[in-house]
Amino acid sequence: MSKFIIQVNSASYGSAASYSAYRFAKAALESGHSIEKIFFYQDGVLNTNHLNSPASDEFDLKQAWIELHNQYGTALVNCVSAALRRGVLSESEAKENNLSQWNMQAPFIMGGLGELVIGIETADRLVCF
Asked: CATH number of the domain that 84 lies in?
């Protein structure tokens, strides 16, 4: 079985890329493969905004990522630089920037590009969406 790193570069809504990344990750895990981590980069960090509120008849991609993590333990890592540029902050980043609000919560975590590079070294494949 293969070990994957999934890199998500597009926002939750506006294109099918993030949904395709989710479906690929779910199918890979269900087939017995492992995913080292899912790395949200560029506009992909918008997938992790807890203020996303899709209509009740739409697929909730943020919740789907959380359920994937809960079921398989897959790490969900935001690129901290890309997230901060797009207004996605964890509680610790909000405190560091003297802000009273944040919009990213566990199980999503912040990380740097170094985490992506280290993951690539240990994985068999990097798949970007």
From this structure: 3.40.1260.10
